[in-house]
Design goal:
single chain; alpha/beta; Rossmann fold; 4-stranded parallel beta sheet; 6 strands; 11% strand; SDR; SDR family oxidoreductase; NAD(P)-bd_dom_sf
């Protein structure tokens, strides 16, 4: 796993090692820095002896109304959500091909490809861009035995979402047929499928994981 905060990363490694009993390594990486994308891939290969799966999960969602948006806002969010995603995958291609079972899993969103949300036009644009990248990357990498797919989460209970306050969370739960926010585990299971041998003939596809959030035409349709 990678991240910008080494202290938080090492803490996550300890938690995962204890709770899941797995072997986890942390590599410090800022996906908004091109050199970090290459270094993280190469360090991972050195640590593990190869690379089978890349989960491009890093993303930011700063709120910014379109009327107040600056070119700096756009550069920063595209650097992390799009540029970092693409360059990480690009540097991983040789190792993924060598593994013979290469898998790329992108974390997009329902926001942008399917829905819109006030204040997140730039975020939605980045998430739609990831799917545009996915489709052509899937074609180019298919002959190398590499699949490229994407998970589109709805509202998931993460630190960032919790920080938006209880009123926001309550309004979101009301708009979801299952009447709950998704969990990180819900997204993890979807990623695990795309990374598995069972998904070997699935590529260039996106899977919405949102508790049915995008289904109703309106709150009135919820009954």
């Amino acid at each position: 796993m990678t991240g910008r905060n080494a202290e938080a990363g090492e803490e996550a490694v300890r938690d995962l090692t204890v709770s899941a009993g797995g072997k986890v390594r942390f590599v410090k990486q800022d996906v908004g820095v091109p050199e970090d994308c290459a270094r993280a891939v190469h360090e991972t290969i050195e640590l593990l002896g190869g690379l089978d799966v890349v989960c491009a999960n890093a993303g930011v969602f700063p709120e910014r109304p379109l009327a107040e948006m600056t070119s700096v806002d756009l550069r920063e969010i595209f650097a992390i959500n799009v540029h970092g995603c693409i360059m990480t995958v690009r540097h991983a291609i040789p190792a993924l091909e060598q593994s013979g079972r290469g898998r790329v899993v992108l974390t997009s969103s329902i926001t942008g490809p399917v829905t819109g949300f006030t204040g997140w036009s730039h975020y939605g644009a980045t998430k739609a861009a990831q799917l545009g990248f996915m489709r052509t990357a899937a074609i180019e990498l298919a002959p190398k035995g590499i699949t490229v797919n994407a998970v589109l989460p709805g509202n998931i209970r993460t630190e960032g979402l919790v920080d938006m306050g209880p009123d926001y969370i309550a309004s979101m739960e009301e708009a979801i047929p299952q009447k709950r926010l998704g969990s990180v585990r819900d997204i993890g299971h979807a990623c695990l499928y795309f990374a598995s041998p069972e998904a070997g003939y699935v590529t260039g596809q996106s899977l919405v994981v949102d508790g049915g959030q995008i289904l109703p035409e309106s709150l009135g349709a919820m009954g």
